[in-house]
Specification:
The chain has 249 residues and is of the alpha/beta class. The chain is built from 10 helices and 13 strands. The chain is 29% helix and 27% strand. The radius of gyration is 17 Å and the shape is globular.
Length: 249
């Protein structure tokens, strides 16, 4: 059966400098950070293909030529278009820059340094069901929100507020999982709203227009720091098309 994701464009934001990982992976773009001998990007593309996505737009910046060379010699299960930022634009700026390449409504948007194994078709269905949603954000339950900051969700599944990072106070809660369904209405309004989707855009949306897709148990990984990157090998061990597809059955 054809997946509902087949007609949804996916955008991977992979233009960051990766300065916190430089001491570990050198000048390799973060999206190509090796995990069990494979670039992290390959895991993401494989996962999206298994979920039924047919088109990915990859937004590049730092050392884009290295990523382009990798894609040229890699046979992917999915159509990949690339776009290169003229300068660091931030997450919202990068999305706005990629807007002409994005034709679906909504657009699935992911961070190039985050792994979150969730049912994207179910997330899309919830976004469609929330008729007033400008965006739907994945929210993951974690034991310690200090590194990420928290997300507060109301009973009607709308996001009520974002809680700033507080390194001095450890608490369990929901955090932003880095996977979004962004409506065309929101995408068209991004220019001028600021450079950061997480700080300049989402927290300032009108009440009742930002919905949460709750992921209480998920394979969640952010490779943005040396500590979290060190856990990636064990986290993604054995990940391949077959195991991901089987998890959906």
């Amino acid at each position: 059966m054809k997946s509902a994701l087949a007609n949804i464009d996916a955008l991977i934001l992979a233009g960051g400098l990766g300065t916190r990982l430089a001491g570990v992976i050198g000048d390799i773009p973060k999206v190509l950070a090796p995990v069990n001998g494979r670039p992290f990007l390959d895991y993401q593309l494989e996962y999206l293909a298994c979920e039924g996505v047919s088109k990915v737009v990859l937004s590049l910046g730092y050392r884009a030529e290295v990523v382009l060379a990798h894609l040229a010699k890699t046979k992917s299960q999915i159509e990949v278009e690339t776009i290169v930022e003229p300068r660091p634009l931030g997450t919202a700026g990068a999305i706005a820059f990629a807007r002409p390449r994005l034709r679906s409504d909504p657009v699935l948007t992911l961070n190039g340094d985050t792994w979150l194994d969730l049912d994207l078709e179910a997330m899309l269905a919830e976004h469609y069901a929330s008729h007033e949603a400008l965006a739907t954000i994945s929210c993951v339950a974690v034991d310690d929100t200090r590194r990420y900051g928290g997300v507060k969700v109301s009973a009607d599944r709308t996001v009520s507020c974002f809680v700033e990072k507080d390194e001095s106070f450890s608490t369990a809660g929901l955090v932003n999982g880095g996977v979004y369904m962004l409506s065309a209405r929101l995408l068209n309004s991004l220019p001028g709203l600021g450079s950061s989707l997480e700080h300049d855009v989402l927290p300032h949306l009108s009440t009742g227009t930002l919905y949460a897709y709750l992921v209480p148990e998920a394979s969640f990984l952010d490779i943005g720091t040396p500590e979290s990157y060190a856990r990636a090998a064990a986290h993604l061990a054995g990940r391949n098309s077959k195991t991901i597809a089987e998890a959906r059955q």
